[in-house]
Amino acid sequence: MLKLLETTVQTIEESTTTLADILSDPEVDITKPKETLGYFAKLWAQWDLWNKLLDAAPRIVAAIVLLAFGFVLAHVVSKLLVRAMKLKKADFAVYNFIAKMVRFIIRITFLLMAVSMFIKINSIIAALSAVGVAVGLGLQDSVAQFVSGVQILLNHPFRTGDFIEVAGVSGNVVEIGFMTTIIRTLDNKRIVMPNSDLTKNHIVNCSVEGKRRIDFSFSISYDDDIGKAKQVLREAVLATENVLHDPQPTIAVGGHGESSVELVALVWCDSSNYWDVFFAIHERVKLAFDKHGISIPFNQLDVHLKQ
């Protein structure tokens, strides 16, 4: 059909007949439909449009078949992509967006292929490419953030609700978008980070493994009984709510300080209970040491005077 129109336009140009000429012709009178139709029938015969239409018919059919195939292919490919990304447990926003983009790209490709059967589209493609390059250069930062967002949503270095540490920021992930990620810190500050900043830095995900280890260090005096102190520390840790018994806590001597012996307690808990256990153990151990007469010494300096 496009070829037919192109041929018609060329024929009109060759015969130096313009639309203005047609409308100004005395035989064209919209108040006299029969005469006007007869005039256009004469033009149809003069330009031999019927034969041109018959010549273009195979290409018209081929273009329709090509477009139909392209639309079916776009639907099938997008469905397969959605199924594959669901198996990878990708977020709905990701596979829904990618499926739409794939459908759009395939349909546009087949549409251009169909149009190219009738007219030359090289100039159109060149113009669109130039516009695309200009827009890409102007929005390169936004494009980088968008690509990073897709990468995060596909690879899942973290998910909504995870506690992460990245680029000096730590907190719970509130929302993951295509351009930015929102993090809420422990003191309830809302931080909006560009996704490109996240992918450029090391991300520490404290929630993904399900449980975390908390490392404690407690000081006792050199005069205290180390065995007794370790036993009191173990009992205090095991009696704390939400502390996991598998794996068992590790209680050991961690070092000899200037004024004290350092006891370490390596304690496991579910990631969601991290801060509850952290605060509870500090309080319980202090009370247990006081009850059993185990001192937590201050920094001391021994001074020896010589006569």
Describe the structure.
- The chain has a five-stranded antiparallel beta sheet. It has a three-stranded antiparallel beta sheet with strand order 6-8-7, covered by helices on one side.
- It folds into three domains: 2-125, no CATH class; 154-205, SH3 type barrels (Roll), CATH 2.30.30; 211-291, Alpha-Beta Plaits.
- By secondary structure, it is of the alpha+beta class.
- The radius of gyration is 39 Å and the shape is rod-shaped.
- The protein has ten helices and eight strands.
As a percent range, the share of helical residues equals 40-55%
Tell me about the largest β-sheet: 5 strands, antiparallel
Oligomer: single chain
* Number of distinct helices: 10
Strand portion: 15-25%
Lateral strand order in the biggest sheet: 4-3-2-1-5
Q: What class would the helix/strand composition place it in?
A: alpha+beta
Query: What is the overall shape?
Result: rod-shaped
Alpha-carbon distance between the termini? Answer: 117 Å
Give the SSE order as H and E letters. Answer: HHHHHHHEEEEHEEHEEH
Low-confidence stretches: 1-20
CA radius of gyration is 39 Å
Q: Structurally, how many domains make up the residues?
A: 3
Rounded average pLDDT: 79
Number of strands: 8
